[in-house]
Write a structure and sequence with these properties.
CATH architecture of the largest domain: Orthogonal Bundle
Helix content: 55-70%
Number of domains: 3
Structural class: alpha+beta
Number of strands: 6
Radius of gyration: 26 Å
Shape: flat
Order of helices and strands: HHHHHHHHHEHEEHEEHEHHHHHH
Distance between the termini: 66 Å
CATH topology of the largest domain: Globin-like
Largest sheet: 6 strands, mixed
CATH class of the largest domain: Mainly Alpha
Strand content: 5-15%
Length: 403
C-alpha cells in the first residue's frame, strides 16, 4: 500500500503530538502498564515478565513517538529492539504464546485514547483533526502489526532453540514430574543427574534487572544447599532450583547481600517425587506473593509467608484489612512495628521480647504504650489481627514511617 504523507500543517501537528508522547507523563505509563497486565493475571504475578512487559510498553511508545518527531506522518518501522524481543523469549520459555498479541492490542487501545485526547488539545479544526487522527490511526496499527510480526518470528527462533539439547531434555523431564506424569523415577534421575529420593527443598531465584550480569544468578543457585543443586533455566533471569535436604537460609542471605536485586523464594522441605513437586509449587506461590506485594525482602520462605499469601490473594481487600486493623500504626516506624511483632511472637511476654530485641524492658513497655496510642483498638484486644496485619506490612514494606 502506498503511504501518502499528510499536509504540512498536519505533519507539524503530528510532530507536536509525538513530542508529547516521547515525554509521556508517569501516570500515562502506569495506566498503560495496568491495562496490559490486567489482560493476563498470570503475567502480572510474575515479577520478571511484568517488568519485561513494562519495559516493552515504554520502549514501543518512545519508538513510535521518536520516529514521528523525526519524520512526522511517515511509516514507522517495527520495533525489533531488545525490549519486545525479550518478551518473545520469556513467553516461549514459559510455554506462553498467546499473550503478546492480546497485550499489544490492549496497549494499542490505551495509547490511541491518549493520542486522541492530545489531538483535540492541539487543534479544533475539523479537517485537520480528521486528517491527523486518520494518519495516526493507520500509523499505530501498521506499527503494531509489523512489531508483532517481528516478535512472532523471534518466538519461532526461541522455540527452535529450546527444543534442542540437554537443557530441553531436563526442562521436559521437570515438566513431566511437575505435571504428575508417570515417568519412571530412574529414567528421570538419569536425565536430570539428580536423585529424586529423600528430602528436597525447591527455590525460585530471579533478578529484577535482567540486563545485569546474570552469572550472579547461577552463583546464587550454586550456593543453594550443601551439595550441588539441580538448576533449571526457567527464563533469562529466573532459575528453578532443587537441593537435597534443608537449606541454611541465613548463610544464603549473606551470600546474596551484595546483590540487592536478586530475590529468592524457598519452598518447604518435603520427601520424594511428590516433595520435589510440592516444594516447587510452594516456592512459586512465595515468589508470586513477593511480586504482588512488591516486597523489599530478598529472601522469603513459604513457611514464613503462607498466611500472608492467603490474605493478600485479593490485594485490595488485604490493604483495607491492614488499614482498618492498624490505623495510624500502619505508618509507624519499623522499630516500633518490629517491637509489637516480637512481643506478640513471644506470647506477649515483655521480658522475653525485650531480651530478643536486645533492649531494656522499660523501653519495650514505652514502645508498646506508644503503639496503643496509634492503634484503633488496644493491642490486648486485637492481638491476632494486629499480628497478621503487621506480617503483611513486613513483607510489602512501608513508606512515610513515623515513630
Amino acid at each position: 500500500m502506498t503511504w501518502k504523507l499528510p499536509s504540512p500543517q498536519v505533519r507539524e501537528l503530528i510532530r507536536q503530538c509525538a513530542q508529547i508522547v516521547v515525554t509521556a507523563r508517569p501516570e500515562w505509563l502506569e495506566e498503560l502498564d495496568e491495562a496490559v497486565l490486567a489482560a493476563s493475571p498470570v503475567i502480572a504475578a510474575d515479577p520478571e515478565l511484568a517488568g519485561a512487559v513494562s519495559r516493552s510498553n515504554r520502549a514501543n511508545l518512545f519508538f513510535w513517538g521518536a520516529a514521528n518527531v523525526r519524520d512526522p506522518g511517515a511509516p514507522v518501522p517495527p520495533n525489533t529492539g531488545p525490549e519486545p524481543l525479550s518478551i518473545a523469549r520469556e513467553m516461549v520459555r514459559r510455554g506462553i504464546t498467546g499473550f503478546p498479541l492480546d497485550a499489544y492490542r490492549v496497549g494499542e487501545g490505551v495509547a490511541w485514547r491518549r493520542l486522541m485526547e492530545i489531538a483535540f488539545e492541539l487543534t479544533s479544526d475539523p479537517e485537520q483533526l480528521h486528517e491527523l487522527l486518520d494518519v495516526c490511526s493507520r500509523s499505530i496499527s501498521a506499527f503494531v502489526d509489523a512489531t508483532l510480526s517481528g516478535i512472532a518470528a523471534q518466538i519461532e527462533l526461541e522455540r527452535d532453540e529450546l527444543t534442542r539439547g540437554t537443557h530441553a531434555e531436563r526442562r521436559e523431564t521437570v515438566a513431566l514430574i511437575l505435571d504428575g506424569a508417570p515417568i519412571p523415577r530412574q529414567r528421570a534421575e538419569t536425565r536430570l543427574g539428580y536423585a529424586l529420593t529423600g528430602a528436597h527443598t525447591a527455590a525460585v531465584i530471579w533478578t529484577e534487572r535482567p540486563d545485569s550480569d546474570l552469572v550472579r544468578l547461577d552463583r546464587a543457585a550454586e550456593a543453594f544447599g550443601v551439595t550441588r543443586p539441580l538448576s533449571l533455566l526457567a527464563s533469562v533471569a529466573t532459575r528453578w532450583v532443587w537441593t537435597p535436604g534443608t537449606v541454611d537460609v541465613a548463610a544464603l542471605g549473606e551470600h546474596i547481600r551484595a546483590d540487592p536485586d536478586i530475590r529468592i523464594a524457598i519452598g518447604p522441605t518435603a520427601d520424594g517425587v511428590d516433595g520435589f513437586r510440592r516444594s516447587h509449587f510452594d516456592a512459586l506461590t512465595t515468589q508470586h506473593m513477593m511480586a504482588r506485594l512488591h516486597s523489599p525482602q530478598q529472601i522469603a520462605t513459604f513457611t514464613e509467608i503462607e498466611l500472608v499469601a492467603l490474605i493478600t490473594a485479593d490485594a485490595d481487600r488485604a490493604a483495607a484489612f491492614v488499614s482498618r486493623v492498624l490505623g495510624d500504626f500502619e505508618l509507624a516506624s519499623t522499630e516500633l512495628q518490629e517491637t509489637v511483632r516480637v512481643f506478640v511472637d513471644e506470647q506477649c511476654n515483655a521480658s522475653r521480647a525485650a531480651a530478643r530485641l536486645y533492649t531494656h524492658r522499660n523501653t519495650l513497655l514505652r514502645r508498646l504504650a506508644r503503639a496503643d496510642e496509634l492503634l484503633p483498638r488496644p493491642l490486648a484486644e486485637s492481638t491476632v489481627d494486629v499480628a497478621v496485619a503487621l506480617d503483611v506490612v513486613h513483607w510489602r514494606g512501608q513508606t512515610n514511617p513515623r515513630g
